[in-house]
């Protein structure tokens, strides 16, 4: 590589030298050896990837919709609170990930049962734009208007899941009814939650969720939102956090919501504590039991914070699980 640099004209970087090398045969063919004029440089457009992933699950159609992705510091000490930074760094390095920065994705799921459009979680909402809060744009890309949403299901009430319930102070999905975990609602609306560590979220719940309660059905594990779509206990991340199990024509999928929040750290080391988990031990127990079941049954899952498109499988690996991103399993 240093030889390439050495042969490049003074002041031309290695990258320019490499692209000049790559372009050279083409330029030579076009100009019979005369130097090719530089073309106008196009502005960088930023990372690009599809932000809607839609696939069939039996008679259902499932779409994962990116509300946004956010880079920040970590994963440690957000993940692995109860272990050393070095231990987390070693695990990340073994998985080809940097130790100092990580990207968190936010991915609501839309299920078309054939009879209804059911949206699971609503993203961060308008206050987080333009970087986040992209759910409505994704719905538009998917050809769905907010008015068409029949049901909004909340897996739990953290801000990145309830923020998109309103738009301009009004319900963002004006024709929807709501399905909400009873334990979750009862926790966040209990007297005294609007002070101390629960203050911020409890106030947001008062603003975003409580006004919708009259259009809500409050559910517990085992309850269904539609035939084949049932709530599954996944407590720990929050007191009433629930996953949702989908089954249609023998095809199954688990919407795991925030049962795991990092595709390497949370899954390979389910016992490591996570700052976002309100009850660390209960969340760890849920990770092990829920993903143990998914691994044993070899069924796919959607994880709200998995790398987009947030769909994959897990297989047992050591004390935890290895994440296997879905590719074309739903397309053949
Ligand atoms: Zn979340």
From TrEMBL:
Question: PROSITE patterns of this UniProt entry?
Answer: TAT (PS51318)
> Where would you find the membrane-spanning parts of this chain?
none
Q: What Pfam families does UniProt report for this protein, alphabetically?
A: Lactamase_B
Stretch forming the signal peptide: 1-40
User: Which controlled-vocabulary keywords does the entry list?
Assistant: Hydrolase, Metal-binding, Signal, Zinc
Q: Which GO terms describe its molecular function?
A: hydrolase activity; metal ion binding
Under SUPFAM superfamilies, the record lists: Metallo-hydrolase/oxidoreductase
Keyword Hydrolase assigned to the entry: answer is yes
Q: Which residues form the Metallo-beta-lactamase domain?
A: 105-305
Family, per entry: Belongs to the metallo-beta-lactamase superfamily.
PANTHER family reported for this sequence: QUORUM-QUENCHING LACTONASE YTNP-RELATED, QUORUM-QUENCHING LACTONASE YTNP-RELATED-RELATED
Q: What is this protein called?
A: Metallo-beta-lactamase superfamily protein
Origin organism of this chain?
Oceanicella actignis
Taxonomic lineage = Bacteria, Pseudomonadati, Pseudomonadota, Alphaproteobacteria, Rhodobacterales
